[in-house]
Amino acid sequence: MIGYFLENPSVLAAFLSAVATGLAAWAAWKGPVAAARAAEDLRRSNDDLHERRRLKMWVFSTLMQERAYIASIDAVRALNLIDVVFRDASPVREAWANLFSAYATDSAVPRHVQDERLRQLLREMAVDLGIADSLRGDDLGRVYYPQAIEEEERLRQMERKVALGRLQNQLNPTANTVVEISTPTVWPPRPE
């Protein structure tokens, strides 16, 4: 068979042309499908990266906004998302673990140390987000918290404590018992 192709080069050329045409047709059919699949994979990867960055920025900006009173609902929600949102950022998660241990109720960590650990967490987040070069330590520590807002928060806390105490007394079974006075009563009463 090889000898036939060597004797008739035009047949060899026609055969190779047919093979090349078949491969070109196959590439014309598979190429766009592969390109579309690659484009979709790139788009999905880009969307995932964009969403992860958006969530990281949300957590960071929420904590920056709430750093004057970190016990706010939004701040607590943001703190509880750190391990998921920053799952690929070990320094951030380590800083969060240090802050979390400082906030433990049985911990005797002073307030200034808690504040420093919060600033360290914010610094690590800024590094992970790529914005640390434009932020200084003073920027992370500078907080505007007017006295009126502080007083309002203290008032809310006091109202909450009073309401909690009132509810606890209502729920306490010994608080609801009637004190009986042991006086001898004659029943039925004597006629007059």
Distance N to C terminus = 142 Å
Strand residue percentage = under 5%
**Uncertain ranges:** none
Please tell me what the overall shape is.
elongated
Helix-strand pattern, N to C? HHHHHHH
Give the fraction of residues assigned to helices. over 70%
Q: Please give the domain count.
A: 1
Task: Characterize the largest beta sheet: strand count, sense, and whether it forms a barrel.
Answer: none
Whole-number mean pLDDT:
85
Overall radius of gyration: 37 Å
Number of strands: 0
Global structural class: mainly alpha
Number of helices: 7
Short overview:
The protein has 192 residues and is mainly α. The chain has helices at residues 2-7, 9-65, 73-85, 90-103, 111-129, 137-141, 147-171. It is elongated, with a radius of gyration of 37 Å.
Secondary structure topology:
Elements: H1 2-7, H2 9-65, H3 73-85, H4 90-103, H5 111-129, H6 137-141, H7 147-171
Helix pairs in contact: 2-3, 2-5, 4-5
Give an overview in words.
With 192 residues, this protein is mainly α. It has one domain. 72% of the residues lie in helices and 0% in strands. The protein contains 7 helices and no strands. The protein has helices at residues 2-7, 9-65, 73-85, 90-103, 111-129, 137-141, 147-171. The longest helix has 57 residues, at 9-65. The termini are far apart.
Descriptors for this entry?
mainly alpha; 72% helix; 192 residues; 7 helices
